[in-house]
Amino acid sequence: MTIVKTTDFADLILVHRGKVRDMYALPGFDDLLLMVATDRISAYDVVMDDVIPGKGEILTRLSLFWFELLADIVDNHLITADVDDYPAVCRPYADELRGRSMLVWKTRPLPIECIVRGYISGSFWSAYKQDTTVCGFVLPPGMRESDKFAEPLFTPSTKAELGTHDENISLAAMEKIVGADRAREIATISTRLYQRAADYALQKGIIIADTKFELGVKDDKLILIDEVLTPDSSRFWPLDRYAPGQGQPSYDKQFLRDYLSSLTWDKTPPPPPLPAEIVDKTRSRYLEALQRITGE
């Protein structure tokens, strides 16, 4: 297994290094980008010094699966994930790119995160405990942690810079950013994507409690970009252990967050070292999510 923490491709142009992905422009191809999923992992908006071996490959395989399953709802930015079909300038890096990269169309990303919630958890649960009106949604009293909503809620947020937190906003606030018509289109597409994926995952024994989509604009059309429905961008719960009224076991990085919360770390850099057991158990959860959803 090739472990990749940080990429360095001298013949390509690094345009963005995120928490997990490195994005490159290709000389001579102004409308293309190369997206590489590393084995980095972040929690509480801090990138850990330790990696999760193979994580980038798991995220890529899951995204490719969902791109295909959801393609009839909205177009996506994927051109190919076959390294042999990449432009020649990428060939010197084929071994490092194989299995963890995608050649994609360049788009103009929306300035918001498209979050859909099927269950009350995380920051939404914390907000609900303070006020039953959350992000403009008037929720029924008496909800328990991890309860299912009557229907999925589209709850956008602003995009934060690396190291800072996204901020939940109302639909009205989103309309001021992107316009009313585009806001309705974004909400409709995001909700349809979530419902299709949630229905499919339930058949595989996984509850998708919530997820975050990225949408971009190309030729004035919305298309699905970045990663899709991975343990980094979603809460995956095992159906056979679902018990409302408490936090749920998960196949995502909540396991890592729970470990970090048990420490005296103040959730700012530098991060604490991760014991081998935590790395191994985190990887096994990501791998089980891949196996259950895709059958691989």
Automatic annotation (TrEMBL):
The keyword Ligase applies. It comes from the Bacteria. Residues 15-268 form the SAICAR synthetase/ADE2 N-terminal domain. Keywords: ATP-binding, Ligase, Nucleotide-binding, Purine biosynthesis. GO terms for cellular component: cytoplasm. Signal peptide: none annotated. One of its GO terms (biological process) is 'de novo' IMP biosynthetic process. Its EC number is 6.3.2.6. Pathway: Purine metabolism; IMP biosynthesis via de novo pathway; 5-amino-1-(5-phospho-D-ribosyl)imidazole-4-carboxamide from 5-amino-1-(5-phospho-D-ribosyl)imidazole-4-carboxylate: step 1/2. It catalyses: 5-amino-1-(5-phospho-D-ribosyl)imidazole-4-carboxylate + L-aspartate + ATP = (2S)-2-[5-amino-1-(5-phospho-beta-D-ribosyl)imidazole-4-carboxamido]succinate + ADP + phosphate + 2 H(+). This is Phosphoribosylaminoimidazole-succinocarboxamide synthase. NCBIfam families: PRK13961.1 (NF010568), purC (TIGR00081). Pfam families: SAICAR_synt. InterPro entries: SAICAR_synt/ADE2_N (IPR028923), SAICAR_synth (IPR001636), SAICAR_synthetase_CS (IPR018236). GO terms for molecular function: ATP binding; phosphoribosylaminoimidazolesuccinocarboxamide synthase activity. Belongs to the SAICAR synthetase family. The lineage of its organism: Bacteria, Pseudomonadati, Thermodesulfobacteriota, Desulfobulbia, Desulfobulbales. Transmembrane segments: none annotated.
